[in-house]
Every structure is written in C-alpha cells, then in structure tokens.
Amino acid sequence: MPDLHVILGATGAVGRALVAELSSRGHRVRAVSRNAEGPEAVRADISTPEGARAACAGASVVYQCAQPPLREWASRFPELTRSVLAGAEAAGAKLVMADNLYVYGPVGGPMTEGLPHRADFPKGRARAEVDRLILDAHRSGRVRAALGRASDYYGPHGIGTVLGPNLFAAAAAGKTVRWVGALDQPRTLSYLPDIAAGLATLGERDEADGRAWHLPAAEPLTGREFLDLVEARVDGPMKTAALTRGVQRLLGLFNPTVRGLSETWYQFDRPFIADDSEFRDAFGPVSVTPHADAVAATVDWFSARGGADDR
Fold first, then answer.
1. Is the pLDDT of residue 117 over 70?
2. 113 and 12 part of one domain
C-alpha cells in the first residue's frame, strides 16, 4: 500500500491544490480540516495535541497548510504548531510546512533563504517562532521537517489573499480592480498549483529536510504587467485603481483586514522578489506555470462563480 500523505487544512487554497497535486503523483492522500468532505476526508480539530495525533495517525508525510483565523493569527500560530508537531512526532512522519516570507521583514534586494529573520511586527515574529519550533524539532530528532516558503498567491480557490477579492473577484464581476501598492514595482507572485508542486517535492525528497526553501514561481511582474494579463482575459476593458498607502490608512479605519496591511506594507511599495534558485538547483529541472496561463485559469475560476469571493 502506498505511503499516506496527510494534508492539514485541506479545504484552504493551498491545501486544496496540494490534495490535487499529491493525488496526481499517485500518493495515498488524507484530507484533514474542520469541515472536510469526501471519501478520503477526515474532520478533525488539530489545535489540540490529541486532535492532531488522531489526524496524523499512520502518516508518512504531514503537510501543515492550516492557519488560525486572521484576527488571531499571531497569537495562536505557535501553539497550533506545537500541536501539529505532536501529531507528526506520534506518527513518525515527516512534516512539511507551507510557509511565507514574513520572517525576513524589509530587505534591500532579492530574498534568499540565508537572510536573517528581522521581521519586527506581530505576524512576522509569530512566523519566526513557528519556523524555530519546527527546525528545533528537526535538529533534536523529534521529526524530519522542511519549510516551503511562497509569496502572495493566486489561483483557483485563492480567496484569502490581496489578489482574490480585490483583483480577480472584482475583475470577474466587472467592478473596479484594485492593485495593492505601487503599480511600477516588481513582485514575486506564486500560483497555487506551483506552490503545491513545490511542497509535494519537499515531501518526497529526503535532501529537502532540515531547512527552508523558496518554492519556485514565475518571473516577477509589476502591478501594471499583471493587470494587463488580467484585462487580456476578461471580456471588455477593465477599470483599475491602485490602493495607495494613504487610501489603505483611510480604509483601515473601518476595515480590519485592510488595516492589517500596515504591518507588511514594505511588500507593496518597493521590489519584493524571492530568489528560488536553491530549490531549482537542488530539485531541478523545475517547470512553473507562465503567468499568462495562471491568470487565465484564475479569471476563469472566478468568472464561473460570477465574481463571488467565496468558495
């Protein structure tokens, strides 16, 4: 019987893409979340060690794609990670963490995995603690572990991101499309199926263990370049606007989600580029989805739902 790969947070955007990717590679998959459905799905509360152990039982690899609610993200993520580590350890499973780029804080050039963790804001400090907990557990022999870091994502089911409701849902509904930040600064943007492919590779390869990796993504684009790709896919001209720092501060008085962008505004007003060459050198050749194809698939997914920004 094939080894069991367990995805925690399997109904989220990354988790859904990873279920599809692992299944396409022929792995036996268990999809875990609070509201999971289907023959291979398991409902579980992994916020407790007992729940996490039950969810991870029998696994050879556990992929941690679950997150606390946004408003409780910084305060609850470390404790959630402790529970997940307990589950993976009890199963004797390798743990692969779906990570992001918060830990570095503002940098002066492309981000590499060797940069110090200098984030000085709540979510960044929480991410740094989560990463420390996982890598300490690896070094102590409790679990084998790897971290896969990606930038802001987009793609089918990509709701919980600045590119979801503000951009793709708005474009599909014929509303004003708002790009967060400066339109002329290049950014690394990750496509969900590419994130899933990278995480699956980390789960399969022993040489991935014990460190963080930047997951492969297509080339950085400016906001204008990205919006041009979206407009080319929608039916008719598209009205666009930039959500500037001043507008963000004003809207943040009434919208806590927009207010939360203050912590990471450095990602939106200057180049924000992740160097993924170490992953490509270690596990290549790597194929990623061209932005034009990825944007088209994302527009089509949102359009099929009439621009609705729910799942």
1. yes
2. yes
Question: For residue 236, is pLDDT > 90?
Answer: no
Tokens 């556990």 sit at which residue?
62
Which residue range(s) make up the domain with 239?
153-188+219-274+289-304
**Residues 88 and 95: beta-carbon distance below 8 Å:** yes
| C-beta of residue 301 within 8 angstroms of C-beta of residue 156 | yes
- Compute the distance between CA of residue 179 and CA of residue 234 in angstroms, rounded to an integer: 16
Q: What CATH number is associated with residue 27?
A: 3.40.50.720
pLDDT bin (cut points 50, 70, 90) of residue 307 is low
Cα 78 to its chain centre, rounded Å, is 17
Whole-number Å distance between alpha carbons of 15 and 105 = 25
The confidence score (pLDDT) of residue 182 equals 94
Query: Which residues neighbour 5 within 8 Å (Cβ) at sequence distance 6 or greater?
Result: 22, 27, 28, 29, 30, 59, 60, 61, 62, 63, 203
Answer for the pair 97, 134: CB distance below 8 angstroms, yes or no: yes
User: Residue 61: enclosing H or E segment and its boundaries?
Assistant: strand 61-64
* Claim to verify: residue 298 and residue 167 sit in the same structural domain: yes
* Residue 141 DSSP SS3: coil
Distance of CA 203 to CAs 114, 164, 255, Å?
A: 21, 28, 38
In-domain check, residue 311: no
Secondary structure letter of residue 218 according to DSSP:
P
pLDDT tens column, 36-85: 665 567 888 999 999 999 999 999 999 999 998 877 888 899 999 999 99
Q: Which two tokens stand for residue 270?
A: 């200057």
What the block records as the tokens of 255 is 């919208």
Tell me: do 176 and 233 sit in the same domain.
Answer: yes
| Same domain for 142 and 164 | no
- DSSP 8-state symbol, 169: I
Q: What's the domain count of the chain?
A: 2
8-state DSSP, 180: E
